[in-house]
Amino acid sequence: MALCSWLLLMMTGYRAALAAMKSNVAPYMRERSWVDHKPLQGARGESKSMGVFLLPCAAGEALMIPGENYICVHMLEITDLHVEVGEKEILHDINLKIGDGETHVLMGPNGSGKTSLLMAIMGFSGYKVTQGKIMYNGKEITHLAVNERAKAGIGLMFQRPPTVGGLKLGKLLTATSGEPKEAIDAYAKAVHMLTFLGRDVNKGFSGGEIKRSEILQLMVQHPDFVMLDEPESGVDLENISLIGAAIGKLLEKDLHIVHRKKSGLIITHTGFILDYLDADVGLMMCDGVIKCRGNPREMLKEIKERGYRECMECQKV
Ligand SMILES: Nc1ncnc2c1ncn2[C@@H]1O[C@H](COP(=O)(O)OP(=O)(O)O)[C@@H](O)[C@H]1O
Ligand SMILES: [Mg+2]
Q1: Atom of ligand 1 nearest to the CA of 112
Q2: CATH, domain 99-127+139-312, list 3.30.10.20, 3.40.50.300, 3.30.720.210, 3.40.50.150
Q3: pTM for this one?
Q4: Closest to 276 measured CA to CA, from 213, 210, 215
């Protein structure tokens, strides 16, 4: 398809080629950009000085049309990222692109740097970027403060969140969301946390309750880019299905990818979460490097059968 259009471009001029391209590009691309020509939020949209339209990339596609000056922008784009934790380099040369509506799952042995990557994207101070950059919706956020990143729409669910004595969960939800009580109650009810709103954050919560509390905190913030660090760890089967359904909602999995505006990066060890989410891309991290990129279910199957042994040899990025 693309090749035909490019040949036509050379033979008949770009107008005709562009028309052919517009009718041939994947439907989601047409709906998202060509047909609607919707102005986009934030850094995306028309850059008047450059005369360029910045469009969201979907399903990992990168698209640049000469003449019309369309460039597609991934929701998250990480280039050559190196990160130090405690003066030791933990992440080396990370490159990652996540388009609108996509969910990527990150797997890898303990201590390989998965949590460090999420913390670095969120901008926590202990995770020092020594090289490379992080772009979010076309805007560089490499050195932006954590709260600025949260305001821009990035949300994180911790693997082991702290207990916050003296702060009621309901108060925290109101402060971080600005939502009225009725709305917060409705979200809390959906994840069976209504009776927890008057309790100190995570104090005495079981494993499943902590995870539900974390999900609830994300739900009220409506993040566009959702990062989850082992959402299923330490959780029983009943809670996994509840948490899986809530994550599906957060990532708008009920919508076709064409209409989805939310993207995700999810760390999983067990892969249970894949039963509730139609993840698009699997990533394997070993020793601070993303070694493989592929079908998440196939990758998980291989890990289950052969462990992480193949990890060091895999170079399919
Ligand atoms: N605050 C820290 N100080 C020193 N080393 C750390 C710190 N946090 C993490 N690390 C180290 O970084 C490496 C990666 O850890 P982490 O990102 O938590 O891996 P994963 O999530 O894949 O298990 C580990 O060797 C860990 O010990
Ligand atoms: Mg971890």
Answers
A1: 22
A2: 3.40.50.300
A3: 0.81
A4: 215
